[in-house]
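2024-03-11 09:14:02 INFO receiving multi-entity request
2024-03-11 09:14:02 INFO entity count = two
2024-03-11 09:14:03 INFO echoing inputs for audit
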Amino acid sequence: MSFSWAKPYEPKTALGRWFDERLPLPRLAYGAVGGGYPVPRNLNYFWNFGVAAGLFLTIQIITGIVLAMHYFASTDGAFNSVNQLIMRDVNAGWLLRYAHMNGASFFFIVVYVHIFRGLYYGSYKAPRELVWMLGLVIYLLMMATAFMGYVLPWGQMSYWGAQVITGFFSAFPLIGEPLRVWLLGGYAPDQAALTRFFSLHYLLPFVIAAVVILHIWALHIPGSGNPTGVDVKDERDTLPFHPFYTAKDGWFSGVILLVYALVTFFAPNYLGHPDNYIPANPLATPAHIVPEWYFWPFYAILRSFTVDFILPAKLWGVLAMFSSILLLFFLPWLDKSPVRSGSYRPVFKRFFWLLVVDVIILGYVGGAPISPFRTALGQAAAAYYFLHFLVILPIVSALETPLPLPSSISESVLHGEVAEAAPVGQTKRRGGSIATASAE
Amino acid sequence: MRFILGFIGAVFALILTISLISGVATYFSNPPAPLAAEEFHREPKELRLASDGPFGKFDNQQLQRGFQVFSEVCSACHSLKLVSFRDLKGIGYNDAEVKKIASDWKVQTPSLNPDTGEPATRKPLPSDTIPSPFANEIAARAANNNALPPDLSLITKSREGGAAYVHSLLTGYQNQPAELLKKFPDAKTPPNLHYNPYFANLNIAMPPPLTTNGQVSYEDGTKPTVDQMAQDVAAFLVWTAEPSLARRHASGLAVSVFLLFATILGYLAYRNIWHEAKRAVRVTGPLDPENQAKARRSKAKAGVVG
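2024-03-11 09:21:47 INFO inference complete, emitting structure
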């Protein structure tokens, strides 16, 4: 670990020593998520969503592996294997299926909170640029995985969603259409597409897990950020991850799981679309083709381009939609303000909340049926989205005068009381004054 | 690089502004015509069923009445291909009754003659699913003015509004309002279709299935009004869409109570662990570490144990 006061792993038993000399796996875990990882002591509850995302990845992998044991990846059998076999005949199959369906939604919910946390507190800034970019890679992989997973039940929205989303590629001139046919293995989604989507849907979560390891590795080089954005200066600024943050993450994961359970058990189809309970029919187009809710903002951006200006409107839409995510990779260089936390940036803060509202508007427009009013609203919101990141943020970061920062993390939370700075028995004491702390 | 990115952002914003302006211009120069289906479509009427809400369970008596309506009325055109006859045990029929329901079913199951191998039919078994009266889609369309009666297994999950939609649709047949015809002379319901404001495009191919009170005679003494029959069959179709619903509710309660308990314990553990590390923002109050320390000190001084 990067901090000199991080406690090294000390095996307590002979077996532990024997193991540590041969395969220091417990040492790795201790340094990564145990007592050997010092974390800023002032993290708020927005910092719990990263662990929650890991939790949902685990839930998805476990429920998904069992579901795959009962699923048939065939255009004739997929719908019935989900809606008859799994939902009716497999023991607790309905639970696995609903847990997986809603698990995907909750994975996105916690990841969106995690991403907006990063946007507000400047988690993308030096020295954590790679943490941010690896996170975006995870997000892109999640989107691909979720899209392919939604195709698997082979309902109407599965089929037409696949039709629309793979249709993006045909917007590109010349290579577009051959590329689409190559990706689908045919001219329209059919058996070839379904089988490869199933194969990739099974593969990608493990790729996500691998990138998660890189994401955490890159995070542990500088250590976690914190709500003040001030760097960790000494031991008083940190607490060991275990037991402090394991306890905090533990109980807060309970809260998130409780909400997840309430939705899964009492409103399992609330976040889905009724049309996906109709078997796929290539001859009947649904009245409104909409993707799952977590894609709505991007779908709104796609649909906002309605004018052929130099390039066809569809190509503009596809380019803008891909750009809307890819531009986030450039964020560390678009926002040059040396102050990380939005709490100390009054102008940035206002624009941040405007962006939150903007993305919610885009989500609403993307999920609702097309109307002239909503299209206009979506166009304005999409324009603001690009201006926010590519124009406003660089200007604000250059001109804004930030508020004065606290001189250290411990000063910001502890009001200067030395007595509370180092919890008894948890960290090595580094001065006489701390040694007397909490003597009672 | 920031200039290039800023330029890209400006280009996207410009194209969007052009799209916005041209959209607004089109709206005013060529306003979209209102549609009859937008103005006269109605949301389903409210329907309360025993299976609603987190404590909802199925009312088997109502489900059996609903099954009776299905088998005497709906099954003339519709199938339940995801539901086996033996699943009916879940709504309170015993083995003998299920066997009888299956073998008395009016549609035979396709099979092979065991001696000659030629196509034949046999009586349905409890393990068979509830079949369509039509041999295939072409036969179904030929018998129904080219409309295809959908399988009803998942109908309450595959329509916005669920059971309420089914109930409203079954009771919503009416004559086309004069107001509609006055406003939209072209929107007259075509022959062979039937006006129903709960159907998305207002004109449905299915003729009114429940027309008179007493169309089905209930054994349990419930009065078979059209509304009652529609409610019962809607309740039955909630069950066919998800027979595990009652179990889902019951497990959901158990899981939620367990998680709530575990979360409270987790919270107390968290408070305990952070007790000395965290300065409460409010320095007053009994949970403040300093006050707790004071309380412990004075207890110790007074010789109180614990």
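2024-03-11 09:21:48 INFO post-check: Residues 39-79+132-243 of chain B form a domain with the Cytochrome Bc1 Complex; Chain D, domain 2 fold (CATH 1.10.760.10).
2024-03-11 09:21:48 INFO post-check: The first helix of chain B runs from residue 2 to 29.
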